[in-house]
Amino acid sequence: MPRGDKSKYTxxxxxxxxxxAESYEQRGVSEGEAERRAWATVNKDDGGxxxxxxxxxxxxxxxxAAHKGGKAGGEASASRSAADRSASAKKAAATxxxxxxxxxxxxx
Length: 108
Hints:
The protein is mainly α. It is 62% helix and 0% strand.
């Protein structure tokens, strides 16, 4: 199987990669790089391509990559002073208020 061949991935793995890539693109990562990172994440989670069914296939994953986010975020905010966090919160509240005034819909 040539490198980059996605035929051994399940539909679920492909949807997962699409979703991850989309998220990266929204954060300003180029399309190619987002795609590369997305498949790397799927491989990290699932240990590579797996087809549904068959012996030892279609196993669930623990989603290890998905667990890193909260940990990293918690560490980042914990290392900031209370005043810093408070300033950020005030700024965010002001932004939400400003967006509400302009009738912009907020992400729910």
